[in-house]
Design a protein that fits this description.
Blueprint (H helix, E strand, L loop, with lengths): L1 H26 L5 H5 L5 H5 L7 H31 L6 H13 L2 H16 L4 H25 L3 H9 L4 H12 L1 H16 L3 H5 L13 H4 L5 H9 L4 H29 L8
């Protein structure tokens, strides 16, 4: 049985290792100082062999993904708390059905929905539209994992707080939520990993940009480049230089997800304290 388990583990991990090795081999040569400091610019720069980079893409990805987390985490955790802690509420069956439907909906339809809801009224593609689209991708995952994490906490913890006369909402926030911290962070990480690689909804919302914006809020209110969308456009381009940059963009995207996982795990440790 131990041998079968080892073989199964190798079979699961082997495709991941093959993909990562291939990405590193193809994209490592494109990682340079210019890659992190220069704009992509027009295709003529690639034809002429000029220095190009993806600094605007990296910054745009950080901005869009961070805003998406800020939007999705409070709403998703609130929905999960509603499903877990207030099962008798009449809205819960509808909320659960809508959450499951949203979870099964293709990401490109979520992008189209945000296009109609935000992009058309604004009259332009924007980073905030991309953030809302990714937040919609994250929401059902965070809600479902939050519900599961909270349900894993014994009801005796809730009863002990209620017996002391503490309000129900306070019991949930002060005792149940800290006890389920590991599960909550895992759910947020799963949602982030799912949304971080989505390119389809970003094609309808943030759209992309080959240049840095003129000011800092240009990443929010104007077309913004992101790594998943840029990786797709570089992969289908006719320029070899851009193909290598696409592989390099995949490396950066992978490293960003790994960094987020490590940071979240550090924050989830009970011994980790944030000094004031």
């Amino acid at each position: 049985m131990v041998g079968l388990l080892c073989i199964s583990t190798v079979v699961v991990l082997l495709p991941l290792v093959i993909i990562m090795v291939h990405v590193l081999v193809e994209g490592f040569s494109a990682l340079s100082y210019d890659f992190f400091t220069e704009e992509l610019g027009s295709p003529s720069r690639a034809i002429q062999g000029q220095a190009t980079g993806l600094v605007h893409t990296i910054i745009g990805t950080i901005v869009v993904d961070t805003l998406a987390l800020l939007i999705a985490v409070p709403i998703g955790i609130g929905a999960g708390m509603m499903l877990s802690e207030y099962p008798e509420h009449p809205l819960n069956p509808t909320l659960r059905l809508m959450n499951d439907t949203l979870n099964g909906m293709p990401a490109i339809l979520k992008g189209l929905f945000i296009f109609v809801l935000i992009v058309k009224p604004m009259g332009t593609f924007s980073g905030i539209a991309g953030s809302v689209a990714l937040a919609v991708v994250m929401l059902p995952i965070i809600a479902r994992t939050t519900e599961s994490a909270l349900q894993s906490i014994p009801w005796t913890i809730r009863e002990s707080g209620l017996a002391l006369g503490i309000p129900r909402w306070r019991v949930v926030l002060s005792t149940v939520m800290p006890a389920a911290k590991g599960g909550l962070i895992t759910g947020i990480l799963l949602a982030f990993a799912r949304a971080a690689g989505e390119a389809a909804p970003l094609l309808f919302t943030s759209f992309g940009n080959n240049y840095l914006p003129n000011n800092w809020y240009g990443f929010i209110f104007s077309p913004t480049d992101t790594l998943p969308q840029r990786l797709y456009s570089l992969a289908i381009s006719p320029y070899e230089q851009w193909h290598s940059m696409g592989w390099a963009a995949a490396i950066i995207l992978f490293l960003m997800v790994i960094f987020a996982f490590i940071l979240a795990r550090l924050l989830a440790r009970d011994k980790f304290k944030i000094q004031a």
